[in-house]
Amino acid sequence: MIGFFSWPIYLGYLLTRDALPFLDGQSLGKKLMKLRAVTLDGKSLSGNWQASIVRNISVAVGPLALVEAFILWQKSDKNQPLIRLGDEWAKTKVIVAAESTPAA
């Protein structure tokens, strides 16, 4: 019974992870690596459900993930920027998260 509910929960997290407001626009992995997915103009994806779903659909659909890996591998041989298909589709990018400065 638990397995029945775990797949929809996992898929929901996978698609919306960058838009979850309580994670401040970062997935758990991005938070650990101090990275953030943002729009091309630098706005956080927190609450931007459409962009999060579009950028993560290629990860959720198995064959698309393989196609994406192949395309990135091809780009690396040609010294092209390594931008995921999902980021190209959603018009997003991944940046190093700005560290907050302590209050004086």
Question: What does it look like?
Answer:
- The chain has 104 residues and is mainly α.
- It has a domain at 25-96.
- It is built from five helices and two strands, in the order H-H-E-H-H-H-E.
- It has helices at residues 2-16, 28-33, 49-60, 62-77, 85-90; strands at 35-39, 92-96.
- It has a two-stranded antiparallel ribbon with strand order 1-2.
- Helix 3 (49-60) crosses helix 4.
- It is globular and about 45 Å long.
- Mean pLDDT is 85; it is low at 100-104.
Number of strands: 2
Helix content: 40-55%
Poorly predicted sequence stretches spanning 5 or more consecutive residues: 100-104
- Rg (C-alpha, Å): 15 Å
Element-by-element helix/strand order? HHEHHHE
Shape: globular
Q: How many DSSP helices?
A: 5
Q: How is the quaternary structure best described? A: single chain
Average pLDDT, to the nearest integer?
85
Q: What structural category arises from helix and sheet content?
A: mainly alpha
Order the strands across the largest sheet as they lie in space.
Answer: 1-2
Strand content: 5-15%
| Main sheet overview | 2 strands, antiparallel
N-C termini distance = 52 Å
Summarize the structure.
This protein has 104 residues and is mostly helical.
Ordered list of secondary-structure elements with their pairings:
Blueprint: H1 2-16, H2 28-33, E1 35-39, H3 49-60, H4 62-77, H5 85-90, E2 92-96
Antiparallel strand pairs: 1-2
Which characteristics define this entry?
single chain; 104 residues; mainly alpha; two-stranded antiparallel sheet; 2 strands; disordered C terminus
